[in-house]
Amino acid sequence: MAEGPRPTIRGRRLGSELRRLREAARKSTDDAAAVLQCSRAKISRVETGHNGIRRLDLGILLDFYEVTDAETRQALEDLARESRKRGWWHDYGDTIPPAYADYLGMEEQARYIRTWEPILVPGLLQTEGYARAILDANPAITRLGDPDSFVKIRANRKGVLTKDSPVRLSVIIWEPVLHCAVGGETVHREQLRHLVEMGQLPNVTIQVVPLSVGATAGTCGAFVLFSFADSPVPGAVFLETLTSSQYLEEARELDGYGMVFDWLRSSALNPDQSLDTIAALAAADLK
Question: Domain of 52?
Answer without folding.
Answer: 9-82
